[in-house]
Write a structure and sequence with these properties.
By secondary structure, this protein is an all-alpha fold. It has 16 helices and no strands. The chain folds into 2 domains: 202 residues, Up-down Bundle (Growth Hormone, Chain: A); 183 residues, Growth Hormone, Chain: A.
Length: 457
């Protein structure tokens, strides 16, 4: 226990205590907008079909444009990208509320939903990218980098538990519009604060000059032909290793498990006459998942990512099978809660694998792709499993979750995972500032690389 606390103290020393708080509050709108848009449109139009269309276009916008925002952030830095995205997203979310309350037709309302999804400012992936960059620049070991992934994964899990819970509470005591209005305010305030935090300097981006600078440097020593070749190579990104695409597929299947479980839980609680319990059951799963994810930071670095990936997917398969035989409320609570213990380890390991094998200059885009894969799997499965649950009962939806878990395990077993980083981590750069972390906090011995210049801010 003490070792785990010390590890997370090192992480907080790298990021400063304010950054995780800001990033958490800025993540909440992402978790609130999907569920909130469906509730709001269903409330104002009386049509679940219209609500599904608007929610679907919101998810589609995030899936399609998330990687684009990640790529732009890698190139130009997080600060301008997050500032612009947070502003657009706040306005679009407000427009979605106004349009729903004003009786806007389905097509324009769906268009507003698409803009809302497309402008989601990617706080989760970019916070993870930023924290990893801080760890590498401080010369932190793999144990601290692993704890960064655990902390970020836990913040994701907690936000996706509290986000829908806040929406449900607002809908219960007032109106879903209050929840979405709150989401617009949160993204405007805390998305902006995340963008302006001093740690954004470590992800300033390569900028459009990168290729020209490389070409100029090569030209000084090897002539114009070598300069042109170097510039072209700098502008042409290398293909990711195969494991990156396997991990994206695994996250797509993880999202399918989420969507299938949501549909199955909703169907079973409705059949039992307690539909209001669906959100509580799902929240219980999320709480356990978050707790296990936080504990994952205690695992020693010698337990490699390949072993973790296989163990997490095997656990997800084994723990999801009992869903097929669950037909009462308290057994549902028990099975779903235990299943949550497998979710966070898989998500954390998947993002850690992505960070391990991609080029550091493309990490924002890669983590955005990973997050989009998760959202896409959840959206497709939720739409498909709703119909399966109507036709075959809750077991029809839960069977999709079990099948997705099985395929994810197969991917983990057949994919070759590099034993070491194929690309060097970011250089150990010290940026002068008023305060620095102690060598101990940075995870380095006395006299080693200085800690994060942003500690304490």
């Amino acid at each position: 226990m003490a070792g785990t606390v010390n590890t997370y103290r090192r992480v907080i020393a790298l990021t400063g205590p304010l950054l995780p708080l800001l990033s958490f509050l800025a993540r909440l709108p992402v978790a609130m907008s999907q569920f909130g848009s469906v509730l709001l449109v269903a409330e104002t139009t009386g049509s679940l079909a219209t609500a599904g269309i608007v929610g679907g276009t919101l998810s589609a916008g995030q899936v399609v444009f998330g990687p684009v925002l990640g790529r732009v952030a890698d190139r130009y830095g997080q600060r301008p990208v997050v500032l612009a995205a947070a502003a657009v997203n706040a306005v679009a979310t407000g427009a979605l509320v106004a349009g729903a309350l004003g009786g806007l037709a389905t097509v324009p309302l769906a268009a507003v939903g698409a803009v809302t999804g497309a402008s989601v400012p990617l706080i989760g992936p970019l916070a993870r990218t930023r924290s990893v960059a801080l760890a590498h620049r401080a010369g932190a070991g793999e144990g601290v980098v692993g704890a960064v992934h655990s902390l970020e994964g836990t913040l994701d899990e907690v936000s996706f538990v509290f986000g829908p819970a806040l929406v449900g509470l607002a809908a219960l005591v007032a109106h879903p519009a209050i929840a979405l209005g709150g989401a617009a305010a949160l993204v405007a305030v805390f998305g902006t604060a995340f963008a302006l935090h001093p740690t954004a300097a470590v992800t300033a981006g390569a900028g459009p000059k990168a290729g020209r600078d490389v070409a100029a440097g090569a030209g000084a020593g090897a002539g114009a032909a070598a300069a042109a070749a170097a510039g072209a190579a700098a502008r042409r990104p290398a293909r990711h290793p195969r494991v990156v695409y396997a991990v994206r597929g695994s996250l797509l299947l993880q999202g399918a498990m989420f969507g299938a479980c949501q549909a199955g839980i909703a169907a079973l609680t409705a059949r039992l006459g307690v539909p209001g319990q669906a959100g509580v059951v799902y929240a219980a799963m999320g709480v356990v998942s978050a707790a296990v994810g936080l504990a994952l930071g205690a695992l020693p670095a010698r337990i490699g990512l390949r072993v973790r990936w296989r163990a997490a997917t095997a656990a997800a398969l084994a723990l999801s099978v009992p869903l097929l035989f669950t037909d009462a409320l308290w057994p549902l609570y028990a099975v779903v809660t235990v299943l949550g213990a497998a979710y966070a380890p898989h998500l954390i390991t998947a993002f850690a694998l992505t960070e391990r094998v991609v080029e550091p200059a493309r990490l924002g885009e890669a983590t955005a792709f990973a997050a989009s894969s998760l959202v896409a799997g959840q959206a497709v499965a939720l739409a498909a499993c709703g119909r399966l649950a109507e036709r075959y009962g809750p077991a029809g939806a839960f069977a999709v979750a079990v099948g997705a878990a099985a395929l994810s395990l197969v991917l983990a077993l057949v994919t070759r995972v590099p034993a070491a980083r194929p690309h060097p981590a970011a250089p150990k750069v010290f940026i002068p500032a008023q305060q620095t972390a102690s060598p101990e906090a940075a995870g380095t011995p006395e006299g080693g690389t200085p800690g994060s210049p942003y500690a304490g801010r």
